[in-house]
Amino acid sequence: MIPEIGHFAVVAALVMAMSLAGAGLAGAATGRSSWVDACRGFAAAQAGLILLGFVLLTVSFLRDDFSVELAAAHSNTLLPWQYKFSAVWGNHEGSFLLWTLVMAGWTLAVALAGGRLEQAFFGRVMGVLGLLNVGFLLFLLLASNPFARLAPFVPQEGNDLNPLLQDFGQIVHPPMLYIGYVGFSVAFAFAVAALLSGRLDAAWARWSRPWTNVAWAFQTVGIALGSWWAYYELGWGGWWFWDPVENASFMPWLAGTALVHSLAVTEKRGAFKSWTVLLALATFSFCLVGAFIVRSGVLTSVHAFAVDPERGLFLLILLAVAIGGALTLYAMRAPAIRSRLQYGGLSRELLLLVNNLLLVVAVAVIFIYTLYPLAYEAATGGDRISIGPPYFNRVFVPLMFVLAGFLALAPAARWKRTPLTVLRRIGVLFGIGAALGVLVSLLLGGVLKPAATLAVALATWIVATHVDDFRKRRGVRPLGYLGMVTAHVGFAVCMVGVAVTSEYSEGIDARMAVGESVEVGGVSYTLTALDRVRGPNYMADRAVFETDEGARLVPEKRTYFARGDVMTEAAIRPGFFGDRYVTLGEPVADDAWGVRIEHKPMVRWIWLGALLMAFGGLVAMADGRYRRLASRDAALAPA
Amino acid sequence: MTRARALLIVPLAVFVGIVVLLYSGFGLGRADLLPSALVDKPFPDFELPTLAGEPPRRSRDDLLGEVRLVNVWATWCPTCAAEHDELARITGETGIGIVGVNYKDDPNAARAWLAERGDPYLFHIIDAHGDLGVDLGVYGAPETFVVDAAGVIRFKQVGAVTADTWRDSIAPVVASLQAAAP
């Protein structure tokens, strides 16, 4: 009965979503405040029902109920309980149930916090979110039912979770990422509501900013977790692959980054109005396109779920209706674009415009490269092709360097016009950054690598101009400002990590028997033992390495019972300035293995920087001025 | 409608184009082949380091004497990984020699990749910067060339070699070349 109750709860949630959409939109259109007020109840009921469905599906997994098709396909009695828990979203159907749960959660959060919004506007926001919920729930129930039973033959044992997913990363990465992905629906709903209301003023931007910041921060953490997970789990030390599914999460993140900045201009200066609305629509559109790419199987990827063209078609229709509808509304209602410049050279407006242009070009390039194989296949009638990191890096890296250069100017820039005296000081700080870049590069490898040197120089410059400005602003440092400084410093830290790891990593492949030693990067590694051990649901070959630094590294090669999958578990000794990374290859004789030993300098800085960026976004969100001004807007708004 | 308003339709137009493209992603056939300007031209000259390191370098002369497949691959290319088993099967069943061109890749990653999946190739040359790739007119990985005993390119397959493409397009070419050889 348990899965059936869960299924019923989700069907009931769909009814709530429909009611929410109807009450919100109709209430706003007819001015019936009782209808708009009812939205809170519908949003709460919807969230509660989906949560119930999710909990009941989880119960089926934890109880090894293999009459539930999903549990039979993705779980196993031997699976440790925390992975049975995360196995719920280690597949298409369950992960989409998580998606709808997160969507309902955001809807409820807006419903509860939206009390300060003007009534009609609030109704429209609720209505748009309700419509999105309806779309997602229909897709879940009609094309991806997670509660389906296997009848009449119930398997004794489940097929087990893909070993790659039996990891802490699977527990935290998808939920974080989905909170980010789906959270951009709030900015989307605000933008659509603003278009419907014809109120594209500073107020809608002000309402959108804190929500967008939170979604962006979660997505930052989600992407960083995914990168970190790939790094330690895939076993060859890569942390970003330009895989279509990574791109699917990275495109909305870049667009969201542009949106966070563009909203600032619209809020503070009333400029970029049409552009900001378009970005808000585009950011969530990229989230939907991403979901389509991941779940339709049109592109080959390491992440791909089971391919099902029918699902893909359903998603494509959903995407066409949601985005097409919003863009049609945009074409009809957005204020005409005026190209009148109202700001001078190197004003903050101009810098933010440059930021937006660079980020949007980056998104466009990634989008084109990601879809190029598809276009190629369509054009040639069936040939498949892959576009790899060299193509992406060639365009993306220079764009980020230019972005970093402009970022260093950010804290000193003023609205309308920046005094020239400020620029002189920035020039001096750049000199310091460049010197440090050369010094760090020489210390790291004894040789100058252009990209790493440039990255360190620009990063130092960014940090220097921000610290300099921070010191000068004694007493006037609102949370919004602190958040900006933190996020920008995070970008610099991340950039250093990326550049130094890419340029100065070293590693060797060696054939080693017990007792033998090799040297990598000035550290000697000795293989001291080889044995076979049994884990909860696998057997593993395990090697023990000891270094002359006194570290002990224990990589494994596991064979999982249920499917016979072989997995490499890297042994990593993390360090602030670099990781030691050891993986087992193949046995080359009875007592010898092919091994790979790598040094990854400053690789942690990539994720540390990302966490700083996310933290900055959250700090800025907490700035009290959004709430104070939002109350004022609501009070001033025409009833 | 003014020009400024007309601009606002651009996003919708772009989006419609994207949806059409995504829609075309379903149910694509995959039989057609890309004609190459290089077919019936000599394989370009090269002298490049090998992945195995022994011998340290290989040149065009190492291709001659027999019909060979030249396969352009990289570790960053998921399609190459999918293709790998098929290449192993082909060389196992027919004995045809396959030469790997490791294209714009990290040699260490490439060695680890081969160590994990097995190495059915005769040898691999390292085309780290894609110079040979330019001479070969490579669009992206994977691509596979059929080269005859005299070193002339006779066929080019863009994209993965699958059981179907092998049976329908490549194997007949190889068979006719092998039959023609003395």
Short description:
The complex is a heterodimer of chains A (639) and B (182). Chain A has helices at 2-30, 33-62, 69-74, 81-87, 92-113, 119-143, 168-197, 202-233, 244-269, 273-296, 309-333, 348-380, 389-409, 420-445, 450-472, 479-504, 604-621, 625-636; strands at residues 506-513, 517-520, 523-534, 538-547, 552-553, 556-560, 566-569, 571-573, 578-589, 592-601.
Report the average pLDDT across residues of chain B.
82
Give the CATH topology of chain B. Glutaredoxin
Number of strands of chain A: 10
Sum up the overall morphology of chain A in one term.
globular
CATH classification class of one domain in chain A: Mainly Alpha
Radius of gyration of chain B: 20 Å
Based on Cα principal axes, name the global outline of chain B: elongated
- Helix count of chain A equals 18
The largest β sheet of chain A comes out as: 6 strands, antiparallel
Broad CATH class of chain B: Alpha Beta
- In terms of quaternary structure, the protein is heterodimer
The biggest chain-chain interface is:
A-B, 62 and 48 residues
Q: What's the pLDDT, averaged over the residues of chain A? A: 87
Into which percentage range does the β-strand content of chain A fall?
Answer: 5-15%
- Whole-number count of domains of chain B: 1
Query: Could you state the order of secondary-structure elements of chain A as H and E?
Result: HHHHHHHHHHHHHHHHEEEEEEEEEEHH
Low-pLDDT windows of residues of chain A: none
Distance between the termini of chain B: 74 Å
The rounded Rg of chain A comes to: 26 Å
Q: In order across it, which strands form the biggest sheet of chain B?
A: 5-4-3-6-7
CATH architecture of one domain in chain A, by name, is Up-down Bundle
